[in-house]
Amino acid sequence: MKEMDRLVHIMETLRAPGGCPWDARQNHKSLVPSLIEEAYELVEAIEKDDADAMAEELGDVLLQVVFHSIIAGEDGQFTFAEVADRLADKLVYRHPHVFGNTEVADAAEVTRNWDQLKGAENGKSERDSIADGIPASMPALLYALKLQSRAQRAGFDWDNAEGVIEKLREEVDELDAAVKSRDAAAVADEIGDLVFSAVNLARKLDVDPEAAVHRVNRRFVGRFAHIEKAARKQGVAVSELSMAEKERIWQRAKNSD
Questions:
Q1: C-alpha angle 71-68-57 in degrees, rounded to nearest 5
Q2: Which fold has domain 2-93?
């Protein structure tokens, strides 16, 4: 595609002598923060259902792919074309029900086939643990979700969401006991168990826990902004407002969501 050729050429020019000094000194590791940031900005655009922002953020994510590929090409490792070809080969291989003669009954069977085919690639079948292959640097909620999903595929899972809800109640009771014991280590462990169980419930209910927490964060910021606005209007700091006043404003903001 001419558009991709143009993009690759621009990035190669930026990296070449006489190009951009900042782009020229980047390497795989220095670009990691940008890759993570761009991914989160894309998620935000998707959650806002902002098509214009999505197009822009998808471009920024694509830039990261091209940037890493060009750096690798300079080191004689691989090129963007190889990245694209490997991805295309992988998609064809993992979709035998589309590009081959395999028949599937539903999406669940597609997922099972995908996992089996993925497990047979590049020695992945030799993994000894469900944690093998999950990046340790992955955000904690996503890491927990990955672990639980793999455990589910291995047959270790709750029969239904009700069982997880009961487990959540149990974890709350255990946390309460740990707090009363004033055992800091136990409190930390029980909070971890509670969050892990909450992620499990989200998975059982087909809710993305990471996205759910992001939505809660945005709601909190929006509602708290009403309190900040009220404080500014009175010429005082938020801390100077009474708790009753802050709660009243909060509830009013909540009801207007």
A1: 145
A2: Helix Hairpins (1.10.287)
